[in-house]
Amino acid sequence: ETGVTQTPRHLVMGMTNKKSLKCEQHLGHNAMYWYKQSAKKPLELMFVYNFKEQTENNSVPSRFSPECPNSSHLFLHLHTLQPEDSALYLCASSQSTSGLKNIQYFGAGTRLSVL
Amino acid sequence: GQQVMQIPQYQHVQEGEDFTTYCNSSTTLSNIQWYKQRPGGHPVFLIQLVKSGEVKKQKRLTFQFGEAKKNSSLHITATQTTDVGTYFCAGPDDKIIFGKGTRLHILP
Prior knowledge:
The structure holds two protein chains of two kinds.
Chain A: E1 4-7, E2 10-13, E3 18-25, E4 31-37, E5 44-50, E6 53-57, E7 64-70, E8 73-79, E9 87-94, E10 105-106, E11 110-114
Parallel strand pairs in A: 2-11
Antiparallel strand pairs in A: 1-3, 3-8, 4-5, 4-9, 5-6, 7-8, 9-10, 9-11
Chain B: E1 4-7, E2 10-14, E3 19-25, E4 32-37, E5 44-49, E6 55-58, E7 61-65, E8 71-76, E9 85-90, E10 102-107
Parallel strand pairs in B: 2-10
Antiparallel strand pairs in B: 1-3, 3-8, 4-5, 4-9, 6-7, 7-8, 9-10
């Protein structure tokens, strides 16, 4: 148990569906992250939030919409996804976004399949 | 932009043999982190190296940070089946960047 909980663990959705991924961290960290992991690009950083503010958007398509209501919760809203978006989506948290305090604590991930 | 390159991409070793993965950065790093991801699992933090030339050990794992702080290595002595997985290095400065990882397969 890493202190970072992701739900759901598995998700199958059609291209016209809207769904959301949820992440919660119980570590008292200030930064949260979304990563995409696929066979082609092993660990691809998508978004970074620090103290609820988005500090990084790594050229992610607008069909992925993150939300960070507080430092403990992070959502990824999905709509009109493509089959190539099928991947493992990992959430992580860290004490800080820089320096020696950005050690990443990952959740177990959501395995997403887009049909 | 900053890049973190890892080699090899895959490594097959006989159980009991040694294994090494290398990580190289295009820029000087303030520190480097190593993670392990078991098959079907998620990345788990192993260690952070900060000082130039630093060497740290965790049982059969030896981690090194280069003198110029632009490269690092992870060496596993006498591999066991529990070592199977993908090993990632990450070179954070103002933003964290992961290498593509080295996938280790152990042949019994």
